[in-house]
Every structure is written in structure tokens, then in C-alpha cells.
Design brief:
Substrate Binding Domain Of DNAk, Chain A, domain 1; single chain; 25 strands; six-stranded mixed sheet; alpha+beta; 469 residues
């Protein structure tokens, strides 16, 4: 009998990591990919016009200097912000096609695969990701959120002694921040992890810091007219050296970048100090502090009640960010654990795959919807139908009065907590037919385990007049 494999895929902004379930050791492990000679693969994809071929990983990285505009950096950020026909969307589809082929080569037999994504992804980003995966024929079982994968694998490897624990996860990566609170309950042979609350932000992390460092380095050069190339092209060429510079500043007080490494004709160098890096990273530090305070206040949980703080993500290795997180927890600082394992998320996703496949029993995790879902009223206000923080899957209904006689009604749906609808994340617009005359309708919001949002509309007596299922 052929054994089913259990795999986790961490779709990171900067790196791709894959984890798998080790049947012999009864634990998760990072997957070494022989074809790429890596267990942590740089999350780039590039198109080679000469060969009419897409490449990823180190090969894509190696052509940044020669063909920078053919390389896509942080391709995950294209979700939710590019039109369907964009080159970025094509690159994203080819990205998953490449990794589908890599995984199938390693696991030619049957497998269950769970993909890890940020909690702060909106419904439209999740829908676009699933549509892209389907186009690439990249089969997966379920999503797991990055903080869930982290806490799940940690609790499996470090079972709590007490029956109830509160765990906080801070995950600051290449382009997003997730802060989540979990309740871990142990009863006999069962351990259930429930997400209590989550706060997230995109556009926070390593890529933003790299962008600001690039601006500092290039400002004088562009102003002096020494470089007349496309700024985007220059930044793409510069990016690997900026990342190298940033890493150097985590261990030393200053570092120098010589631009003739990139532009041989340009005898120019720029020295950057750790103090400058700290100033740039203040945005990340403040964002972590703000979201942590919000989540603790919302749940009425003090720092003293938190039993463990799990911190991960490459950006948390910047010394001042690391130190600021420790300071936030004050006397509870000894409870802060910095997870140096780059594959923690991928391994947590693999563990979830093994749980779903019945290989691991007595452990599970429950997700919540990170944003409220509602509709826009006539006055432009947001009216919430499904509040945030509910365990998935879930559905909620709400009764509305149609203000005038009409045959159809346009409904605009949003995710978020702002009172004014357009200040929230727009997720979809749909027309409802068959209202006949002015009357009351019921709008139902359905959110599945992957955080996808669908709508149904009924007449008050129960007749279904619109459905997305």
C-alpha cells in the first residue's frame, strides 16, 4: 500500500519553505529540495525571454543584475492589487506551476498539502490565490494562517504542563505583521488551540525597510544625475546588496555599499549606520506596539496572563526590533521565545496536514475571521453582518428594508471595522434580482474554513433570490 505524505507550504514574501511529516520520528521536518539544493528558497520568479522560460529561486536571483525588470520580487504582494491580465498575475501562476512540479517530483505518490498564508489576507486576496492555484493545477487541502502554524508546531513539540495557557504569536516577515492570541486547553488526551483574536497589517516588514534603505543610498546618485536608468530597474539591481547591507547591520554598527559592484562606471559608495536602520525600523516597532496593545485591550488580557510569547519572522532579527519586543513585555520578558527556525511555519502547516489526514490525533486548532463583513448602506455607512473574531466556518443573517420599489438592488460588500464603508476593504459587488416591490430582504454572509466569503439573499418569507454557492 502506498503511503500518503503530509506536506506544508509556507508561501513567504522573501522565502519559500516546505515542511513534511516524518513518519519515523513522529515529528515535522524541513524539506531539502535536491533540485534547488536548498530547504529555504528565495521567493523570486523571473522570465528568460531568450529561452521563453520561467525560473525561480537562486537562478532568478542570479539574473537580477542583468535583467532586473524580468525578475519579480515579493510576488505574493500582487494578490489583491493587480488586474487579472497583469504580468504579475501571470508570474504568480507560473510561480505555483514551478513549485507544483518540484513537489510532484519529490512526492510522486498521493499527498495532502496545506498552504500557510497571513491572517491579515482579505477575502479577495484569498480568492485570487485559490484561483491562481487552480490555474497552476496546484492541489492543496486547506489554508492555515502563519501564527496558527507557529503555535501548532510549538505546542506539539513543547506540550504545556498546565491545563490552560495563553500564547501570543508575533510574526513579522517580509511584507506583513500578524499578532495573534491563542488559548491552549488540555483535557485528557485532547489539546485544542483556539484563536482568541488577531491583528494584522500588510506593507510592514523587510521589503519596506529595504525600500527605504534603497532610497537613502540612491537619493544623492539620482539627484547628481550619475544614473539615468529606470528607477525600478536600478532598485531591482540594488536589492540583493541592500539585503546584504541590512544583514550586516544586525551584527555591526555600520556597513558600506560600493555602487561600482552594480554600476562599474560609478565610483561611489554609501555608508549606512545601525542608527539609520533603527530610524527606518521605527515604523515596524510602533506597529507591533500598537497592534499588541489593541489585541490585549480587546480581549481584556494583561501581560501577566500570557504564558508564552512566540516571536518569528526574519525582520524580528533586526536588533532594535528584537529589543523593543522584549521591552514591551517588561517583567514577563523571560516568557518571550525567539524562534530562530526559518521553517517553523512550513512545519506547522505540515503538522496541520497530518492532523487533517488522521495521522496525528488529539491536537487541533480553530481559526477565526480576522475582519468583520458587512454591506454599504444608502448613507455610505458600513453595516456589519458578521462580526470579526468568530470561529470558522460560520454564517450570519441580517434583515434589511428596501427603501423603494425596484426590480434589482446593487449590494456592495466590505471587510473591516471602520464606520464608513469605503474606508474598509472592498471585497465584492453584486446585483440582486426578483425583489418585485419594496419589501424586506435577508442578507446572509457565509465564511468558510479558508476565510472565503460568500453571500445569499432571501425575501423575508424565505425565498432564495441570490446565491454564490
Amino acid at each position: 500500500m502506498i503511503r500518503k505524505e503530509y506536506i506544508g507550504f509556507d508561501f513567504g514574501t522573501i522565502f519559500i519553505k516546505v515542511g513534511y511529516w516524518d513518519f519515523l520520528k513522529r515529528q515535522t521536518a524541513p524539506l531539502w529540495i535536491p533540485k534547488l539544493q536548498k530547504e529555504k528558497i528565495i521567493s523570486l520568479i523571473a522570465f528568460l525571454p531568450k529561452y521563453n522560460q520561467w525560473v525561480t529561486g537562486e537562478l532568478a536571483f542570479s539574473i537580477l543584475k542583468e535583467e532586473p525588470l524580468n525578475v519579480f520580487i515579493g510576488i505574493k504582494t500582487a494578490l489583491g492589487r493587480s488586474d487579472e491580465a497583469s504580468t504579475e498575475k501571470l508570474a504568480l501562476k507560473e510561480f505555483f506551476t514551478l513549485y507544483k512540479n518540484i513537489i510532484k517530483e519529490l512526492f510522486p505518490a498521493d499527498y495532502n498539502l496545506v498552504i500557510s498564508i497571513p491572517y491579515c489576507f482579505y477575502a479577495n486576496q484569498r480568492e485570487e490565490l485559490i484561483a491562481t492555484l487552480e490555474k497552476a493545477q496546484f492541489e492543496f487541502l486547506e489554508f492555515i494562517h502563519d501564527p496558527e502554524a507557529i503555535v501548532l508546531n510549538y505546542i506539539y513539540e513543547n506540550p504545556p504542563l498546565s491545563k490552560q495557557n495563553i500564547v501570543c504569536v508575533i510574526d513579522l516577515g517580509g511584507n506583513k505583521l500578524d499578532i495573534a492570541l491563542f488559548e491552549v486547553k488540555r483535557k485528557k488526551q485532547q489539546t485544542i488551540i483556539t484563536t482568541l483574536d488577531v491583528r494584522g497589517a500588510s506593507g510592514v516588514g523587510g521589503l519596506r525597510i529595504d525600500e527605504d534603505l534603497s532610497d537613502i543610498i540612491l537619493k544623492e546618485v539620482f539627484l547628481g544625475g550619475e544614473i539615468k536608468a529606470n528607477p525600478l530597474e536600478v532598485k531591482h539591481k540594488l536589492w540583493p546588496y541592500v539585503v546584504e547591507l541590512k544583514h550586516s547591520l544586525t551584527t555591526q554598527e555600520k556597513a558600506t555599499l560600493f555602487l561600482d559592484r552594480i554600476f562599474p562606471h560609478l565610483a561611489y559608495f554609501k555608508e549606512i549606520t545601525r542608527q539609520q536602520l533603527t530610524k527606518i525600523a521605527l515604523f515596524e516597532i510602533k506597529t507591533v506596539e500598537t497592534l499588541l496593545k489593541e489585541i490585549l485591550a480587546e480581549q481584556d488580557i494583561s501581560l501577566e496572563r500570557i504564558d508564552k510569547v512566540l516571536v518569528t519572522g526574519g525582520t524580528t532579527r533586526i536588533p532594535d526590533i528584537k529589543e523593543s519586543i522584549v521591552r514591551l513585555f517588561g517583567k514577563q520578558a523571560e516568557r518571550v521565545v525567539f524562534l530562530e527556525k526559518d521553517t517553523a511555519v512550513a512545519e506547522g502547516a505540515a503538522l496541520k496536514s497530518a492532523i487533517l489526514g488522521g495521522e496525528v490525533k488529539g491536537l487541533d486548532i480553530k481559526s477565526i475571521n480576522p475582519y468583520s463583513v458587512g454591506v454599504e448602506l444608502e448613507n455610505g455607512d458600513m453595516d456589519i453582518i458578521l462580526p470579526r473574531g468568530k470561529i470558522l466556518p460560520i454564517s450570519r443573517k441580517k434583515l434589511y428594508k428596501v427603501s423603494e420599489r425596484r426590480n434589482s438592488l446593487k449590494i456592495r460588500a466590505f471587510q473591516g471595522e471602520k464606520e464608513v464603508a469605503f474606508q474598509n476593504q472592498f471585497i465584492k459587488e453584486f446585483n440582486v434580482m426578483g425583489i418585485r416591490e419594496a419589501e424586506q430582504i435577508i442578507i446572509e454572509v457565509i465564511t468558510d474554513i479558508n476565510g472565503l466569503v460568500a453571500f445569499k439573499v432571501y425575501l423575508r418569507h424565505g425565498e432564495l433570490i441570490y446565491s454564490e454557492e
